[in-house]
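Design a sequence for this backbone.
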């Protein structure tokens, strides 16, 4: 079960966006809306745009022997986070009113709880998810071990 950086042209983006959505359905239903199919499409857009909290450059996938994504980890360091532009990605994905609403949510809640600044070399694990059918098979352990290795190298 190898782990690799997400390849948006090769990996199943529907599965990736679904895994991301299911890491925190409550939060994502607030951010992206209650329509799960639309929320997953919007998450996929954020992934493809890059340079944001869900950007492709920060997503590691764990694949099975058939090459199917079974788990993912989104992680980045403080230096990478300081260069991200979530608002720009939001403007590309959502209508103006939603961008304003997300800006208010970010200012009041998310920036204080989820996206606080942290040291440049410190690794922040944003999301970890393993598909329901693959839980208990070591995918999550492998992802966390990889994150631990990245953190040690910083």
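Sequence:
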């Amino acid at each position: 079960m190898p782990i690799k950086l997400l390849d948006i042209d090769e990996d199943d983006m529907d599965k990736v966006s679904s895994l991301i959505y299911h890491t925190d359905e409550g939060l994502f239903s607030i951010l992206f809306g209650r329509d799960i199919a639309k929320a997953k499409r919007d998450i996929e857009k954020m992934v493809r745009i890059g340079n944001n909290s869900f950007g492709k450059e920060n997503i590691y996938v764990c694949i099975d022997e058939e090459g199917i994504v079974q788990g993912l980890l989104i992680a980045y360091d403080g230096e990478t986070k300081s260069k991200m532009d979530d608002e720009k990605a939001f403007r590309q994905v959502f209508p103006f009113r939603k961008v304003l609403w997300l800006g208010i949510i970010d200012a009041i809640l998310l920036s204080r709880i989820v996206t606080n600044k942290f040291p440049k070399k410190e690794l922040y694990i944003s999301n970890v998810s393993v598909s329901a059918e693959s839980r208990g098979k070591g995918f999550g352990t492998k992802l966390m071990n990889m994150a631990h290795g990245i953190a040690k190298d910083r």
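The first strand starts at residue 3 and ends at 5.
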